[in-house]
C-alpha cells in the first residue's frame, strides 16, 4: 500500500501521466487523528468532485460516508463531517437531517467547533421547528460566556434564525449585550436588535429605546451601527423612533460623513410622522451645504432636497446650481451620481431640461458607456418640443463611427421621443425626413423593423 502512494522519483517528468495519477491518488484520503480508518476531508471532496467523470455519484458516496462519520462521538470526526456538509449545502444537497448533530457541535467548548456549528446551523435550523425550540438554551449559555468569540458567534446565529418566539426568549440578554464593555459586542448586539424590531412588533418600543441610546455611544463604530439600524427600522416603523429626533439631529454635527448621511436619511424618513421637523431640518441642511467639504454629504443632501424638499425655493436653488457642477466633475463616479440626482429632479421639474441640455449632450459625447446610457434615459424621459431638435442635432452625428450598441441606444431613444404623444415633439417634419436617411444608413438590424414602421406612418 505504501509503495503505491510513495512520491515518484526525481527523474519522473513533472507533467507525466504517471506522476499525475500518483498525486491524484495520494490526496484522496487522509488519516484523522485518533481514527482507525481512512476518511476523506473537505479538500479531498472538493478536488475529487472536480476530477471525477461522474461528480454526482462521487458526491453520493461522500454524503453516505459523512452520514456515517457524523454519528460518531469523537467531535473531531463530527467536525470534519459537518464541514463536508457545508460543501454539500452549496451543491444544493439537502442537509436538514443533520440538525441534531449540528446542535451537538454548537455545544462544544472548542471555538472552531462552535463557529462551524453556528454557521451551518444558520442555514438549516430555520426550517426545522424542533431545533428552533432546542437552540435558545445554548444561545443563552453562549451569551453569558467569558469568551467574546463565543458571544459573537451566538449573536450572528441569533440574528440569522430569529423568530418571534425566539425574540421573547433572548430579550433579557439583549440589555446586557448592548451595554457590554467591548465595542465589538455592542455593534453585533445592535444588529440583533434591528432584527428583533423588524421581527416582533410587541418588543419594538423597548428595543427601539436600546438602539436610540447607542446613537451617542463613545465608540464611532457603535454609532455607525446604531445609526444604520435606526434608519432601517425607522423606514418601516417610524412612530417608534420619534424620540430619537434629538440625538439624530445632534449627529448631523458629527465629523464622520457616514454617520451624518445615515442620520440625515433617518430624520427625513421621520418627516411623515413629525412634519414640524421640516423647517428645522431645512435650516440645518443649508448650514451643512455652506460648511461641508464632503461631496458624499452634499450629494445626499441634494437627493433629499429633490425627494422631500422640492417646494423649498432656497434649498432647490442650491441644488439647481450644484447639479451642473457634479455632472461636469472630472470624477466619473461623481458625474454618474450627479446624473441620478438630476434624473429625479427633472421628474418634478421637467422644464429644467433646457438649462441642462448642453451639459447632457457634452456629457454624452465624452462619457463612458454607463454615463451615455443614463444620459439617454434622462433625455428620453424629459425631452419636449422645445428641446428635441437641438438635442437630436447633437446626437445624430454620434451614429457615424459608433459601436453597434451605441447606435442602437441612440436610435431607440430618438424614436421614443418621436413617437411620444403621436409625434407631438416633432416641429419640423422636413428636418425629420432628412435625418431618416442617416438613420437608415446607420441603423443596426435590431432597429430596422421599428424604423420602417415609423417611416411608413
Any overview of this molecule?
- By secondary structure, the chain is mainly alpha-helical.
- It is 70% helix and 1% strand.
- It has 24 helices and 2 strands.
- The protein has helices at 17-26, 42-51, 55-69, 75-90, 99-106, 111-124, 129-143, 148-161, 164-178, 183-199, 204-213, 220-236, 245-251, 257-269, 277-291, 295-308, 313-327, 332-348, 353-366, 369-382, 385-395, 404-419, 429-442, 448-456, and strands spanning 30-31, 38-39.
- A two-stranded antiparallel sheet has the order 1-2.
- Helix 12 runs parallel beside helix 14 and helix 18 (332-348) packs parallel to helix 20 (369-382).
- The longest helix is centred in the middle third of the chain and has 17 residues, at 183-199.
- The chain is flat and about 85 Å long.
- Residues 1-37 have low confidence and may be disordered.
Present the secondary structure layout.
Layout: H1 17-26, E1 30-31, E2 38-39, H2 42-51, H3 55-69, H4 75-90, H5 99-106, H6 111-124, H7 129-143, H8 148-161, H9 164-178, H10 183-199, H11 204-213, H12 220-236, H13 245-251, H14 257-269, H15 277-291, H16 295-308, H17 313-327, H18 332-348, H19 353-366, H20 369-382, H21 385-395, H22 404-419, H23 429-442, H24 448-456
Antiparallel strand pairs: 1-2
Helix pairs in contact: 2-3, 3-4, 4-6, 5-6, 5-7, 6-8, 7-8, 7-9, 8-10, 9-10, 10-11, 10-12, 12-14, 13-14, 14-16, 16-18, 17-18, 18-20, 19-20, 19-21, 20-22
How do you describe this structure in short?
The protein contains 24 helices and 2 strands. With 457 residues, the protein is an all-alpha fold.
Amino acid at each position: 500500500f505504501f509503495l503505491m502512494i510513495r512520491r515518484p522519483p526525481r527523474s519522473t517528468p513533472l507533467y507525466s501521466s504517471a506522476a499525475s495519477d500518483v498525486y491524484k491518488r495520494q490526496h484522496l484520503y487522509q488519516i484523522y487523528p485518533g481514527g482507525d480508518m481512512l476518511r476523506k476531508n473537505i479538500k479531498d471532496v472538493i478536488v475529487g468532485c472536480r476530477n471525477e467523470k461522474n461528480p454526482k455519484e462521487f458526491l453520493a458516496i461522500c454524503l453516505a460516508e459523512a452520514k456515517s462519520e457524523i454519528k460518531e462521538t469523537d467531535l473531531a470526526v463530527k467536525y470534519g463531517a459537518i464541514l463536508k456538509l457545508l460543501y454539500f449545502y452549496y451543491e444544493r444537497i439537502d442537509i436538514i437531517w443533520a440538525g441534531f448533530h449540528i446542535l451537538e457541535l454548537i455545544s462544544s467548548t472548542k471555538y472552531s467547533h462552535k463557529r462551524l456549528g453556528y454557521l451551518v446551523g444558520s442555514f438549516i435550523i430555520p426550517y426545522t421547528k424542533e431545533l428552533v425550540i432546542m437552540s435558545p438554551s445554548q444561545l443563552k449559555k453562549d451569551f453569558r460566556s467569558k469568551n467574546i468569540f463565543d458571544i459573537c458567534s451566538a449573536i450572528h446565529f441569533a440574528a440569522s434564525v430569529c423568530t418571534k418566539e425566539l425574540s421573547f426568549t433572548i430579550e433579557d440578554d439583549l440589555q446586557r449585550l448592548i451595554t457590554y464593555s467591548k465595542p465589538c459586542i455592542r455593534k453585533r448586539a445592535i444588529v440583533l436588535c434591528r432584527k428583533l424590531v423588524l421581527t416582533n412588533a410587541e418588543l419594538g418600543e423597548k428595543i427601539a429605546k436600546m438602539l436610540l441610546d447607542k446613537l451617542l455611544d463613545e465608540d464611532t463604530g457603535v454609532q455607525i451601527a446604531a445609526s444604520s439600524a435606526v434608519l432601517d427600522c425607522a423606514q418601516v416603523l417610524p412612530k417608534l423612533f420619534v424620540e430619537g429626533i434629538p440625538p439624530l439631529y445632534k449627529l448631523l454635527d458629527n465629523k464622520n460623513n457616514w454617520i451624518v448621511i445615515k442620520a440625515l436619511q433617518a430624520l427625513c424618513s421621520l418627516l411623515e410622522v413629525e412634519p414640524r421637523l421640516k423647517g428645522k431640518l431645512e435650516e440645518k441642511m443649508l448650514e451643512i451645504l455652506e460648511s461641508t467639504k464632503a461631496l458624499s454629504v452634499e450629494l445626499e443632501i441634494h437627493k433629499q432636497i429633490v425627494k422631500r424638499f422640492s417646494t423649498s425655493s432656497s434649498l432647490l436653488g442650491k441644488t439647481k446650481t450644484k447639479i451642473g457642477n457634479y455632472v461636469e466633475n472630472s470624477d466619473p463616479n461623481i458625474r454618474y451620481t450627479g446624473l441620478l440626482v438630476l434624473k429625479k429632479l427633472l421628474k418634478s421639474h421637467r422644464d429644467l431640461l433646457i438649462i441642462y441640455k448642453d451639459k447632457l449632450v457634452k456629457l454624452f459625447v465624452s462619457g463612458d458607456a454607463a454615463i451615455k446610457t443614463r444620459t439617454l434615459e434622462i433625455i428620453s424621459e424629459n425631452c419636449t418640443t422645445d428641446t428635441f431638435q437641438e438635442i437630436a442635432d447633437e446626437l445624430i452625428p454620434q451614429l457615424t463611427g459608433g459601436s453597434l450598441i451605441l447606435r442602437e441606444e441612440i436610435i431607440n431613444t430618438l424614436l421614443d421621443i418621436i413617437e411620444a404623444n403621436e409625434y407631438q415633439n416633432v416641429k419640423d417634419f422636413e428636418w425629420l425626413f432628412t435625418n431618416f436617411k442617416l438613420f437608415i444608413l446607420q441603423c443596426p438590424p435590431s432597429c430596422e423593423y421599428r424604423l420602417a414602421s415609423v417611416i411608413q406612418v
